[in-house]
Each structure stands twice: as C-alpha cells, then as structure tokens.
Amino acid sequence: MNHSEPSPNHHPAVSIRFEQGTLLVSCEAYPDLPRTFSWLRWDSRSGCYRCHAYRYYELIRHLYLGRIDYSDSAPNYNRLSLSLKSYLTPFDFQAEALNAWMRSKRGISVLPTGTGKSYLSAMIIEKIQRSTLIVAPTIDLILQWQKNLEEWFRCPIGLLGGGSSVIEDVTVSTYDSARIYAESIGNQFCLIIFDECHHLPAPAYGLMAQSYIAPYRLGLTATPSIEPSRQEMLIDLIGSICYSKDIQQLSGEFLSPYQVRTVEVELTENEREQYEYHRGVYQAFRDKVPNLFGRKNSWEKFVMYSYRSAEGRAALKSFRLQKQISMSAQNKMTELSRILIRHRDARILIFTNDNKTAYFISSLFLLPLITHETKTKERKDILERFRSGEWPFLVNSRVLNEGVDVPEANVAIIISGTSTVREHVQRLGRILRKQKDKTAILYEIITAGTGEIYTSRRRRDHSAYEDMS
C-alpha cells in the first residue's frame, strides 16, 4: 500500500494534497468516499473533492483501517529527536494527563492555573517527536512558552506574533498569527496545542483550527466552556475532555492553599443618591421594553433599540454611570488601603473591570499599572519589577486574567469584574502557584445594595468557592 507521492505508473484509489488550508481529494476509483463523508464537497474548479484541512485525521484513519490504497502528499512536517533537558519531575497528575491524552492523541486537559500545563505539553511533544505548533491568545503567553520550551529542549523555538515570523520545527504563535499564516503553513505541523482553548469557538479562531491538518491535537484550559454549542465545536476541533482536575482537588499539595474573603462596603450618602437616580432612569426605560429581556442576545437587542431615541440613549448613559459608581465607590478605596497596609509585605495583584478605575487606583495610591494600552516593552519591565519585589503591588484591568506567570503573587484584590465564572476562576488562579509556606488570599470588594451583589453570586458559582468564607 502506497501512502506517499505516487510513482508515474501507480494510480492509487485516493490521492490527497494540501492547498491553502484545505485538502484536495481525488477518488474516482473509490466513489464510496464522498458518500461516507458528507463534508467532502465537489469542487468543479479543481476537478476533485475538497474539505477543511482538519478532516485529515478522520480521512486518513478511514483509508488506513479500510485498507484503501491511497497517496498522500499533504503532510510537510518532520520527525524530530527532542529530549527534555529539565530538572523537573512530573507530578502524578501530569503523568496521568499524559497517559490519558496518549490513548487517542487528541483531547482537552482541564487543569487549574499554576499546575504545569506547559510542562505537560513538553512531555507530549517529546513523546510525539513531530513538528509542533503551540497556539496561545496573547503575546505575553507566547513569549513565556518560547522561553520555557527553549530552556527545556535547548533548541530554537519559532515565534509567530509580536512582529516576529520565524518558523521552526517547534513554533509558538498567537491565535491571530496562526490564523493569518494558516493557508501557507497549515500542513507543516503534526501536533497542534491550543493553550486557553476556550477561546477557540470564536468564529475566526474556529476557522483557523480547521485550516491545519495536524492529526494530533491537545487543548489546555482551566475553565472549559459549559455552553453546549461551544463544547460541540471544541470536540470537533480538538476532541473531548480526556483529563480533568479542579482547584480543590489540587489545593495544598500541588497548588497553594487559599482563602476567599468577600468584603461588602456601603456607598456614601451622595453616591447612593446618584446611584439610585441613574438606576431609576435606566429601569424606567427598560420596563418599557420587557419583551427584549430573557431572550438570546437580549442585551445587544436592547442597546440597538435604545439608540433609536434620546430617552433610550439617556438610559444607557445612566446604566453606565450607576455601574461606575458601584465599581469605584469611595469606601472601596478605603477598604483597599486597609488591605494594602495589612498585607504590605505581600505581592499583590489588583484587578478592575475597566481602565478608568484602574487608572484612578494607580494615581490614588501611586501604583504601577498594566492595561491593554501598555506597550510590550513597558509591560515586560513592569512584570519583571513586580516579580523581583521592587514593585510589590500591581494594578491591572483584566489583562492579567490569564496567561501571565506570576508565581510570587499571593494576594489578589478584585475591585470590579464581570459575572462570568471563568474570569473569577482565572483571577484566583493567578495567585495559586505553589511556593513554600504560601497561603493565597483572594479579596472581593463589592458595594452593598447594588448590582454587584448579584454579579458576585453569579461568578462564584464554581467548586473552587465551595465552603469558602
């Protein structure tokens, strides 16, 4: 059976080649193939069938098990000879996760932040010994991946993103760069690793994942999606969850033990008056359009409806103002100062939901700040100073929710955030990396008698917050 480029005198039943993120499949001698796979579509321009590149695994598996004669010129990846040169000894759960993934060489590993998902990936890369692409959502993350992999394998690691376009047998890339380069490099990797894979169901990223042939696929996340449609898409693109451990299962032995403390503060008299006024303006208008709520995309529909009238636009403005009052209340700043004094010898991350509050805290307490506007070089310098202890407190507006390795941090203070469980768990995860004699503390400061009470309850709907006080 021939599975390589056909000789001039050989005409296999099926031939496969890669073209711009797709597979071209010729199967005149095996007409049952398009009837077996409905995703094989006839392309009159090329005179053969075409499908997304990620169908490669399913297609080759069918032909191999069915003993169908085929030729395959699609792969353009290499066999490697890598050896992990690390002093690290895998934890038991990392070995379990490796073995679970190796059974099918596809699937998602769900592990909390700080439990060595990148080292698990390195173990898998060493096992597979084929060209590998690691995809992560941010520049910070890919630089972190590159640094770790260069240290562990002592070989050049390619980089796509942040102005770099260097491709090696092991390459790290942002999601955006992997999308941009997919049509040209989609056949150059046998293993693809999606870090923070809960981002993948976004339409553009999903199409990116479909454009790579990589038969072996690993997804990494601390917060898997619970939406059925997103779960189905992840299973299709990567595989199902093959291994899972939550924060409570690993706390103490593999993660730092932790406490969660919720502090309620009152609005000042003036803040309460302003809050109730703007809340009333918003609710009065909202009550006129109750049919929009409780439906899919109801908020988006409400915003579109509101912009049609001056009254609606005023209601949206009042909604933002009452939310801002609750997020940056005066007594929150007083409580924040108490916590900073109480933990003056700790390494503290302060989280806000918006840049305005972050800048306010930074200027009020004269603290370093990172937002999405912070330039890469400045961001790197700030994080290095934070890790060294030169700057022990650091304010950020959501940008450190995921993907930044800050093992020195042991206290997190949430000034404001969304109601999503994922964000809250990610913020907790930033302070859980194991260190000797470390106990992590997560503070959540919320304003009493506002929508933040509901927001807090929603985002704590996770096993990590059970029996926490």
Which strand order does the major sheet show?
A: 9-8-10-7-11-12-6-13
Number of domains: 4
Count of helices?
17
Structural class: alpha/beta
CATH class of the largest domain: Alpha Beta
Arithmetic mean of pLDDT: 88
The CATH architecture of the largest domain? 3-Layer(aba) Sandwich
In helices, the fraction of residues equals: 25-40%
Approximate strand percentage: 15-25%
Q: Overall 3D geometry?
A: globular
What is the radius of gyration computed over CA atoms, rounded to a whole number of angstroms? 26 Å
Relevant CATH superfamily of the largest domain: P-loop containing nucleotide triphosphate hydrolases
Characterize the largest beta sheet: strand count, sense, and whether it forms a barrel: 8 strands, mixed
By DSSP, the count of extended strands is 19
Explain the overall architecture.
- Helices cover 39% and strands 19% of the residues.
- With 469 residues, the chain is an alpha/beta fold.
- The chain has four domains: 59 residues, 3-Layer(aba) Sandwich (MutS, DNA mismatch repair protein, domain I); 154 residues, P-loop containing nucleotide triphosphate hydrolases (Rossmann fold, 3-Layer(aba) Sandwich), CATH 3.40.50.300; 146 residues, 3-Layer(aba) Sandwich (Rossmann fold), CATH 3.40.50; 59 residues, no CATH class.
Descriptive key words:
MutS, DNA mismatch repair protein, domain I, Rossmann fold, alpha/beta, 8-stranded mixed β-sheet, about 475 residues, 19 strands
Provide a concise account of the structure shown.
With 469 residues, the protein is an alpha/beta fold.
